[in-house]
Amino acid sequence: MSNVTLGLAGAIGHDPAAALFVDGELLAAVEEERLIRRKHAKNEMPFLAARQCLQIAGLRASDVTHIATPYAPVSLFSKARWHYAYRHWYAPDRSIDSLLNGNRRYRRHVKDLRTLVEKLHISNLTTELVPVEHQLAHASSVYHLAEGNEKTAIFCNDAKGEYANIFLGYGYKGKIFKIKQFYSPDSLCGLYAALTDYLGFETLDGEFKVMGLAAHGDSEKYDLSPLARFERGKLKVDTRLITTIGMRRYKAKSRGHYFSRKLVKMLGPRRAGHLLEDPYVHYASAIQKLYEDLALQMVEYYLGDILAETGRLALAGTGAMNIRLNHRFHSHPKVKQLLVHPACGDSGTAIGAAAFAVNQAGIPIKPRRDLYLGPSFSTDDCLNACMNHRDKPVWEVLPDPFERAAELLANGQIVAWFRGRMEFGPRALGNRSILANPLQTGITDAINQQVKFREHWRPYSPSILDSAAEQLLPEQFRDEFMCLSYPVSGNWQEQYPVTVYRDGTMRAQIVRRQSNPDFHKLLSAFQGLTGHGLLLNASLSRPGEALVCTPEDALNMFLGTDLNYMIMEDVLVTKRESSPKW
Q1: Which residues have a Cβ under 8 Å from the Cβ of 400 and sit 6 or more positions away?
Q2: DSSP 3-state of 287
Q3: CA distance 205 to 353
Q4: Cβ neighbours of residue 119 under 8 Å, at least 6 residues apart?
Q5: Mean of per-residue pLDDT scores for the chain
Q6: Rounded CA gap, 419 and 275, in Å?
C-alpha cells in the first residue's frame, strides 16, 4: 500500500495551502488563495487546494493514508508557554490564558481539520493525523527536499507559530535537531512587521516594500537598536515599543497597530506622506540593518561551529523572503552553500509538515528542483474560456507561440504569459508571468501604467537564460527562485538599469531547460531576435490579487487591465476594439 500524505496548512490564519506526497515524492502543492481569488485567504482552510492536489495526482480521497498539519500542541511544562506568560505580564488575560488554556488554537484547528476532512470525504478512521511543530515544518521544507544528507545548519525566522517564532538547529542524515528556539513576543519578523506597520504599509505584503525602500536611505542616520537586542544568547524585543498587545497598542481611527504610543513619541507620527522623505526612508534603512545584524549575530552564536564544520546553511520561515538578509548570509565567510526554500512563507509549511511526516514514516524523500506543482490547462481549455467569456476577447491559435511572443517582446510589447503548471510560492517563475523587454525605453513605466501600479523605486526582476547567466553572473549567484540579491557590475547597471536596486544589487531567476523547458525556449527565441537572453518578469496578477490559476482567471485579469497581448498555451488573446462613441 502506498504512503499518501496530504499536508494541510491553515492554523496561522493566513496563506492556507495543501501539498501531496506519494511514496516520498512531492506531486502537487496549491495555495488556497489562487482558487478562491482572495490574496492570503485569511481565516480559510485549504479545502479547494486539497481537492486540487488529489485531482492533479489522480487520486481519490480514500487513497490518503496520512494528514500532516504544521501546528502541534505545546506542553504546559515547556518553556514556550511560561515565556509567553512572563513577557506578557502587562496583559494579564493573555498571560494567564497561555498557561490555563494554551492549546486552545490547536484544539480549534483540529476541529476545523475534522470538518475539512469530512468535506473532502477522507476517512477519520483509516487516516492518521500527524501534527508537526510549526517551525519544524518550516525546517523540514528546506532540509528534507534538498539534495544530500550532509550536516546542515538550519535557521527558521518566522512571524509566529504555536509560540516559537525562531528555530536554530541542524539536519543530519535525514533528521532535524533543535539547538535553540525563541518565543513570542521576541521575534525578528515581529520587529520588522511593527516597523512595516509604522511606515504605513500593510503587514504580509508591505515588508517587501520596506526592504526595497531601505536601499534609498541611510541606515546610520537613526539608531533603532533600542527596539531589540541580542546579548549573551538571548533576544529581547522592547514590548514597550513594538510587538505590543492589548492596551499597549497605538490606536488610530479605531484600528490597533503593532507598536505603542511610546514608539510614536520616540520616532514621530506614523508615516502618511511621501515614502522617500526624511525620516521615514532612513527608518526603513535602519530597521533593515538592525534586522540583518541581529539575525547574523544569532546564527553565529548558535550555529557558527556547525557552519565552520560544514559550510551549509538552510533558511526558511517568512523572514527568508528578505533577500537582503539572504545576501548577507550568502556573503558570510563560513557559508559555502546557502539553501533557501522558495516557498518559505506559511503556505510552504504544508510541504514541510508533509515532508516531516513522510520522513518519520521512514520513507526516503525525493529531492524537488522546481516549484511547478499546481494545475495545468490545455489549449482547448484556453479556447473554451475565450469562447465563453462575457467580454468576448479576440483570439487565434498560434503555430509557434514562442516565436510570436518573442517577436512581440522584441518590439517593445508587454506580454501576459500563461503556460504549464502553476507555480507554488510567492514568485512568478515563468508559467504565470507578465513579461517585458528590459532594453525598451520606459518599459517599467508602461508596466506600471498598464497593470502593476508599483512604486517607481521598486525595480522589476529579470528571468535570465542559464547560458546567458554564465557570461553575466558568477556561479554562486545563479539562483532559480529569486531568493537572493547580489551586486552587479557597472556594465550591467548601464545595460539593464531597470533591473537594479538603488544600491547596485539585483534579484533574478536563472532559467534552466530541465526545470522549465517552455520558458527556456521562449527566452532562447527572444535571445535569437535581440542578442539578449533575459526578460523582465512580474507576477500575472493585478495589485492586491493572487496569482492567476485558470484560463478564466487569466482572462479576467487581462481584460481588467490595459495590457494588449496575452498568450495562454497556444492561444494569442487580444482585445476587441471599442466601438466609436457618438
Answers
A1: none
A2: helix
A3: 24
A4: 47
A5: 95
A6: 36
CATH superfamily, domain 379-574, is Carbamoyltransferase, C-terminal domain (3.90.870.20)
Rounded CA separation 536/17 (Å): 28
CATH homologous superfamily of 4-134+345-360 equals ATPase, nucleotide binding domain (3.30.420.40)
In 11-91, alpha helices (H): 32-36, 47-57, 79-87
pLDDT, tens digit (0-9, with 9 covering 90-100), for 524-573 = 999 999 999 999 999 999 999 999 999 999 999 999 999 999 999 999 99
Structure confidence at residue 275 (pLDDT): 75
Q: How far apart are CA 192 and CA 287, in angstroms?
A: 7
The C-alpha atoms of residue 127 and residue 357 are separated, in whole angstroms, by 13
What residues does each domain of the chain span?
4-134+345-360, 188-340, 379-574
CATH fold group of domain 188-340 = Nucleotidyltransferase; domain 5 (3.30.420)
User: What nine digits make up the cell of 8?
Assistant: 494541510
DSSP letter string, 134-189? HHHHHHHHHHTTSS----EEEEEE-S-SSSEEEEEEEEETTEEEEEEEEETT--HH
The answer to whether 4-134+345-360 and 379-574 have equal CATH topology is no
**pLDDT at residue 253 tops 90:** no
279 close to 285: Cβ distance less than 8 angstroms: no
Where b means 16+ CB within 10 Å and e means fewer, 273-284 reads: eebeeeebbbbb
**Helices and strands, counts by H and E, the chain:** 19, 24
Cell numbers found for residue 522: 521562449
Largest Cα span, the chain: 77
CB 424 within 8 A of CB 371: yes
Give the separation between CA 37 and CA 554, rounded to whole angstroms. 11
Q: Pairing mode, if any, of strands 534-539 and 462-465?
A: antiparallel
Helix (H, G, I), strand (E, B) or coil at 487: strand
pLDDT at 395 over 80: yes
In Å, how far are 48, 294, 498 from 336, measured between CA atoms?
40, 21, 30
Predicted pLDDT at 578? 58
